[in-house]
Structures are given as structure tokens and as C-alpha cells.
Amino acid sequence: MADQTDKNQALDSVRGDIDALTAATDKVELELANKRNELMLPIYEKRRAVIEKIPNFWTSVFMNNMTLTQIIEPADIPALEHLTDLWVKWDSKDARAYDLTFTFSENPYFSNKELVKKVTFNGEEQVTTPTEIKWKEGKDLTIKDNKRKKGEDNVSDSFFSIFQDDDVTLLDYISNELFAEAIHIYANGGDDDDDFSDEGSVDLDDEDDEDEEDELPAKKKGKK
């Protein structure tokens, strides 16, 4: 029994060392992400000025991205054609917190000029709350049949459901991957996401990447 106790204590000691190193590296990765966002900001602003002169830039980026095309429904496309800007404003002290802003031109679907998803970090996990879309009469893309009341059996898998969803997986993907690689996606069309250089992104959750890649397209099935 004493021998087993010694082994358990030794294992606990090693586990403690691993946990301490993991916490230290997590801190370094967060600091790196914060610094990267600070340095990239003027470059993104320069890119934004160029993009303003390119019609349907962000619509093309969305439709050229393999992950998003598995989530975007055909009925979403006419609404997304009014997307004029996508912007991420990260918390300067914590890259896990950010505002993701979608800007739209006047359109027949909703009256919002901007749809903003705010993501915060509460010390343990990222949190987001629903964003109200002011749908015009009969134009709610998140409802299968606008003539019926919205209920569990009348909810569409629309891309716009992310604004009611409390899951941040897709939001993180758009903010940290798609936003950084927008020019590449626009210029190279249907290239696989795995081909991206990731020059502008720092992943704060590497160990879950493989699982999340598989999960992303399925997220729309579980929206609330």
C-alpha cells in the first residue's frame, strides 16, 4: 500500500508540473495573441480601405470558404450579398474577448445596419448573448415558414441563426481565421481551409483544432 501511495504521489507531482507549464504557455500564447492583434490593427485598417472599393468582397469571401458554404443556406445568399464590411475589435488585454461586426447595406430582409456579436471571457470560458435582428415582415430567414409562429419545428438552419446562438465556435473561426485570411480566400476561391498560411492568426486553443474543424459544419444543427 505504501508503494502504491508513493507512486500516486509521484504521478501527482508530475501532473502538477504539467499543469504549471500548461498555464505558463497559455499565458504566453495569450500575450502573443494580444500583441499580434495590436500590430495587425493598422494593416487591417489599410486592408479595409482597399476592400471598400471592391464590390461584394466579403460576400465572395464567405462563399469561397468551404467551412461557411456548409453552413450558409441558399436562402441566405441574397441577404449576404448586402454584406459590405466585416470587422473584429479585440479586447486589448484579452484576445478571447471581441466584438464581431457585420455591416450591411439597405436590404429587404432586416433594418439593422450592423449586427454585432459580443464575446466576453469570464475567467473560465467565452460567453456570448443573442443579438436581435430586426427582420422585416415575412423575411425572417431563421424561420422555415414565415406564415407560422416560430417554434422548435419551424426553425431554419440559416447562417443568421448564429446571432441567436450562444456557441462561440463559429464566431471564433470567423474572427481568428476567416478575418485574417480574407484576401487569400478572395483571391484563391475554393482552396481548402487547410491550405491557408495562417500568417495573421494565433490559435489560443490548438489542442482542440482537429475536433473543431469537424464540428463547425454541424453547429448549425444545434443552434438555439
From TrEMBL:
GO cellular component: a single term: nucleus
Residues of the signal peptide: none
Sequence ranges of Acidic residues compositional bias: 190-215
Pfam families: NAP
Region listing for Disordered, in residue ranges: 188-224
Domain of life: Eukaryota
GO annotation, biological process: nucleosome assembly
Record-stated family: Belongs to the nucleosome assembly protein (NAP) family.
PANTHER family: TESTIS-SPECIFIC Y-ENCODED PROTEIN (PTHR11875)
Protein name (record): Uncharacterized protein
Taxonomic classification: Eukaryota, Fungi, Fungi incertae sedis, Mucoromycota, Mortierellomycotina
